[in-house]
Structure to design on (662 residues):
């Protein structure tokens, strides 16, 4: 059996209507039948009691005169009451005095009368009634009548059944009719809801058939569908947008990967090219280092040998030419040396350590002084100039810059060289300042090019490689180098050794310019 | 026994200049010249055309150029240091190269000294003179095995 909750709404509604009708009918019919049966019983009893009284009075005389014949006649009136099947009259002593029986009725009577009372026996109602006159009991009336209560009950049951059938039929019709207004719209909503779920068609709407709660339900349901439809459309459009975005991203990613691959290929290619170029460069400088100097040594050596071994065969002019040849070989040797240094600088890895630039500068100055003891240059080196860098490379930087300052002040009366530092937010900009020959700022950008010289070799000796080497070292450290100068007044070379110092260094530079 | 010098040098000019500088410095010790690495080894191990040489007569110093035909200077050094007979012989690398790499490899291979040949002849002559004086007069050779 199905649990009540799983029955369809239609069945529940039918059930409720029919059950209500049934209960109402049963209660109504029951009450009516009960009342009717009760009043029937009461009426019958009272009717028969009255009859018995009446018989007692009419037969009292016959009893008093002991005349059974009259008494039988008196009882004979009972034939007008067909319900009474038999009757009897007992004397004061309980002896049967007169009897009556309906035509065709069996004559059987109780032997002795009983006290006043009514009882039901075998679908008959039996009644005894004493005949009392002036306090003396004259006798007893006995009545036996058909008790039709059960027939009535059966009749009523039949009628009730008929009524129930008709009433239930009507109730059924009523329920069917109600269903049109109640169940049908609700079921229609359910059907549409199912369709919406199955087909995902949010444009469906339930038809509003009434203005009651079901109508409100239809409205609410339709509103809900509209809202869901709107939301779904929004969701779908945003989904589509997302999908498009994902596609675009995938595409872009693919493009990035492709470009990366291309780039990587290119990097590999370039690296290979660079490596090969580097190898060639190394082989080249190795070869330069080993082979290019030997012929110079021969030229110089045998020139010297000429002078030493054949002094008497050499006129002064020849000797002077030989001197010039030897000067050139020395210069050639210096150029080769400079080039090799420049090449070497970028070939070895940078080793950063704390470096005492003050000490290093003083060392460079004292070497210069030793090399040219006859020169008197006023040199000031600041104390406590600390830096992070490759000691060997930084000493090349200082040797070159200080060496330049030393060289370009050689024609000054009071040559002065200063090595110091400008501090800004913990970052230092170092400088080497001199009051020497200086340079024309127009050519400032040519200072650091290899073999670029701003002075005639006859004025100041040099290879034109020193500053190129210095710049390369500074760049290797991630620093910057720049210079300021004025022809005949002097020059300042500034350099930094870390990238962070770059910006403040510029500020210092411009401040210096304003101050100058 | 007279101390001798073995000069391993493929450049005839450098050879002549070296010999001249030694002569000028009045260093009269005998100088043998080998023109490539293989010849140097033949000389020291008394092989090839030097097969008849007294194997006990080792030079007091070997002046070794690095860039040589056939076997280069580093190869020669390796062979000398690997052999018990020449393991202790003083070797001075005398070369034009100022490459750090050459210097490192020379010392790692067991060179006793590394001297650069300067381009200027006076400086070159001074270097050779000092070498001659040092190795011929000042330096004590490793004791000879009995």
């Amino acid at each position: 059996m199905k649990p009540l909750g799983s029955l369809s709404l239609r069945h529940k509604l039918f059930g409720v209507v029919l059950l209500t009708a049934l209960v109402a009918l049963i209660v109504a019919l029951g009450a009516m039948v009960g009342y009717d049966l009760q009043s029937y019983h009461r009426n019958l009893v009272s009717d028969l009691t009255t009859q018995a009284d009446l018989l007692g009075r009419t037969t009292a005389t016959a009893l008093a005169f002991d005349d059974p014949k009259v008494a039988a006649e008196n009882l004979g009136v009972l034939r007008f009451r067909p319900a009474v099947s038999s009757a009897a009259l007992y004397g004061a002593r309980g002896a049967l005095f007169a009897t009556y029986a309906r035509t065709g009725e069996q004559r059987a009577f109780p032997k002795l009368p009983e006290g006043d009372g009514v009882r039901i026996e075998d679908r008959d109602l039996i009644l005894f009634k004493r005949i009392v006159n002036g306090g003396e009991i004259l006798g007893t009336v006995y009545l036996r009548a058909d008790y039709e209560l059960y027939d009535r009950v059966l009749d009523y049951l039949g009628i009730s059944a008929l009524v129930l059938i008709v009433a239930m039929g009507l109730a059924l019709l009523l329920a069917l009719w109600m269903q049109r207004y109640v169940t049908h719209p609700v079921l229609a909503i359910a059907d549409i809801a199912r369709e919406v779920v199955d087909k995902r068609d949010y444009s469906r709407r339930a038809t509003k058939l009434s203005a009651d709660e079901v109508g409100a339900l239809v409205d609410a349901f339709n509103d809900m569908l509209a809202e869901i439809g709107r939301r779904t459309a929004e969701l779908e459009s945003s989904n589509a947008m997302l999908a498009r975005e994902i596609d675009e991203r995938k595409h872009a990613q693919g493009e990035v990967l492709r470009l990366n691959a291309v780039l990587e290929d290119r990097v590999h290619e370039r690296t290979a090219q660079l490596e090969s170029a580097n190898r060639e460069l190394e082989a080249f400088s190795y070869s330069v280092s080993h082979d290019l100097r030997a012929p110079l040594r021969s030229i110089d050596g045998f020139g010297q040998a000429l002078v030493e071994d054949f002094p008497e065969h050499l006129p002064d002019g020849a000797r002077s030419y030989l001197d010039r040849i030897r000067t050139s070989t020395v210069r050639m040797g210096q150029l080769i040396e400079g080039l090799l240094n420049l090449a070497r600088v970028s070939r070895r890895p940078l080793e950063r350590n704390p470096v005492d630039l003050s000490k290093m500068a003083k060392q460079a100055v004292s070497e210069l002084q030793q090399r040219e003891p006859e020169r008197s240059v006023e040199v000031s080196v600041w104390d406590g100039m600390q830096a992070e860098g490759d000691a060997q490379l930084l000493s090349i930087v200082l040797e070159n810059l200080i060496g330049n300052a030393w060289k370009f002040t050689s024609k000054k009366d009071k040559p002065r060289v200063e090595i110091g530092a400008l501090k800004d937010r913990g970052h230092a900009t170092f400088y080497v300042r001199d009051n020497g020959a200086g340079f024309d700022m127009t050519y400032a950008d040519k200072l650091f090019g290899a073999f670029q010289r701003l002075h005639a070799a006859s004025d100041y000796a040099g290879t034109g490689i020193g500053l190129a080497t210095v710049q390369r070292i500074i760049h290797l450290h991630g620093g910057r180098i720049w210079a300021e100068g004025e022809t005949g007044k002097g020059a300042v070379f500034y350099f930094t050794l870390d990238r962070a110092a770059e910006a403040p260094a510029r500020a210092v530079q411009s401040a210096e310019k304003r101050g100058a | 026994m007279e101390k001798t010098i073995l000069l391993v040098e493929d450049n005839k000019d450098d050879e002549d200049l070296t010999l001249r500088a030694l002569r000028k410095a009045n260093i009269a010790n005998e100088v043998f010249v080998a023109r490539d690495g293989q010849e140097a080894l033949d000389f020291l191990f008394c092989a090839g055309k030097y097969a008849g040489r007294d194997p006990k007569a080792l030079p007091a110093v070997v002046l070794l150029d690095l860039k040589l035909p056939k076997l280069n200077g580093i190869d020669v050094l390796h062979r000398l240091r690997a052999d018990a007979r020449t393991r202790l012989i003083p070797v001075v690398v005398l070369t034009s190269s100022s490459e750090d790499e050459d210097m490192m490899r020379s010392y790692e291979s067991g060179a006793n000294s590394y001297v650069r040949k300067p381009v200027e002849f006076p400086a070159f002559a001074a270097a050779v003179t000092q070498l001659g004086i040092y190795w011929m007069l000042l330096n004590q050779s490793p004791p000879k095995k009995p």
